[in-house]
Amino acid sequence: MIKVLIVDDQSLIREGLTMMLSLYSHISVVGEAINGREAIEILKEKEVDLILMDIRMPIMDGVEATRVIKELYPQVKVLILTTFNEDEYIIQGLKNGADGYLLKDISSEELVKAIQTVYEGNMLLQPDVARKMIKSVEESTSRKKSIESDAFNELTKREREIALLVSEGKSNKEIAEILFITEGTVKNHITKILDKLDLRDRTQLALIIKNK
User: Fold this and answer.
1) How far, CA to CA in Å, does 56 sit from each of 7, 46, 82, 90?
2) CATH classification of 140-210 is 3.30.450.20, yes or no?
3) Confidence category of residue 84, pLDDT binned at 50, 70, 90
């Protein structure tokens, strides 16, 4: 038996989902909540396997609720249901640990199949939602590469030389010997390079240079 909690601020939606799922013997609706905060309170008292979570709700929306619930109850599956096919909600919801993302225009059979799929530990995205997510990731990657490229062009000639040598796996000592400068100077240059490119360490720098 899959124990389901329905979280939606619209009573008509909650009642409709409850009625729909009551037709399936292997699913039991154990509670309803009108926002994320109420859902968290219910989880303190009831055993829940999976949450059907709306996105836009007052007090605490589905994205924030998913984050909190996954921190407190990582074993609980969260399947986001929404009428809003918006990239920002898709990406953030999944980053916060959502196990699936569906639009509310699906059929009852599709919903039940989705619940079963997520309950079994699988990630689930409708094709159109998946396409939007892929597009968003590609655009984000493209923007990041553009920013990195612009920043790389701002490096001085010496900084570019050192960055290239770092990408070849050269140590500070080896770079100093190749360029006839001190190790301290190499270290200072690398610090400036990382700062200009907004990178954490020389490993990230090497990866960026190799991918340019």
Assistant:
1) 10, 24, 8, 12
2) no
3) low
Question: In the structure encoding, which two tokens stand for residue 50, read together?
Answer: 């999976």
pLDDT score at 147? 42
Cα–Cα distances in Å, from 114 out to 51, 109, 172, 209? Answer: 12, 9, 54, 42
Render pLDDT for 111-144 as a digit per residue (tens, 0 to 9): 999 999 999 888 777 666 656 555 655 555 555 5
Instruction: Express each pLDDT in 137-163 by its tens digit.
Output: 555 555 555 445 556 778 888 998 998
Distance CA 81, CA 97 (A): 14
Residue holding tokens 């530990």? 121
- The correct CATH number of 2-130 out of 3.40.50.300, 3.40.50.2300, 2.30.40.10, 1.10.3730.10 is 3.40.50.2300
Q: How far apart are CA 193 and CA 208, in angstroms?
A: 12
Q: Are 53 and 19 in contact (CB under 8 A)?
A: no
Residues 6+ apart with CB under 8 A from 140: none
